[in-house]
Write a structure and sequence with these properties.
By secondary structure, this protein is of the alpha/beta class. 35% of the residues lie in helices and 18% in strands.
């Protein structure tokens, strides 16, 4: 079924302009899980991470654009010491992710927001509060006139750095060479960041990294993903 207007009005921030899909189809069970879990682990716009009941001393790592939650579940299972902040504006994707996180028994170590990443970092995350950031296969916006919609921009890169603790990391992935180069060139030039592979370089794929839905889609089309790893100096 398609998400009801009442449901969308409760959980989607319509006044914040974003690009891309916002509505779609969910099952009755998925909607029920959202209704149960979002009041418990959600981060509505009036809350910050300081209000999110995060255990003191826990590493806090964010994934921007978590899609259907495959990689978020992987992170939770691989790093039981982490508290994970998931950012995703596509509510049916959030519904699938919530189900997978609950089934894996890791949902209580996650906090979920459907707000735009720019807003989340500006208003919900304090300076030097994050231990790491993941950005996996963001929308490439391939047309030149749409490049301004790409999430990695100079100002956004600087914002990410400001929210990282010293020694914190940013890891990115893309199967679109043009976008990978775009992100690499911006982050290579961002003050305070060091490219682990050296300026202009990409890292090898992490040995335990799962193939996400979007990566598999790229592989079927003959595209191999490239990976970036930066550390805040």
């Amino acid at each position: 079924m398609r998400l009801s207007k009442e449901f969308r009005d409760q959980f989607i921030q319509h006044e914040m302009r974003t690009h891309g899909r916002k509505n779609g189809f969910v099952t009755t069970g998925q909607e029920a899980r959202l209704l149960h879990w979002l009041p418990l682990i959600g981060l509505p716009k009036e809350k910050t991470l300081a209000d999110a009941n995060i255990p003191a001393g826990s590493p806090v790592v964010m994934e921007i654009g978590f899609g259907n939650g495959d990689f978020l579940v992987h992170l939770a299972e691989s790093h039981p010491e982490w508290i994970l902040i998931g950012v995703e504006i596509y509510l049916p994707g959030v519904a699938k992710a919530v189900g997978r996180l609950e089934d894996a028994g890791v949902i209580e170590r996650t906090r979920i927001t459907q707000l735009p990443a720019q807003y989340v970092l500006e208003h919900q995350v304090a300076a030097e509060q994050l231990d790491g950031l993941f950005v996996n296969h963001p929308d490439p916006w391939p047309k030149a006139r749409h490049h301004k919609r790409r999430i990695i921009q100079k100002d956004f890169a600087a914002l990410m750095v400001s929210r990282l603790k010293p020694g914190g990391f940013i890891k990115l992935a893309s199967d679109k060479p043009d976008l990978a180069e775009w992100m690499r060139d911006i982050l290579d030039a961002t003050p305070g960041l060091k490219n682990v592979a050296g300026v202009g370089g990409y890292i090898d794929r992490d040995a335990d990294r799962p193939e996400t839905k979007f990566e598999q889609r790229g592989l079927r089309a003959g595209r191999v993903s490239q990976f970036l790893h930066y550390v805040k100096e």
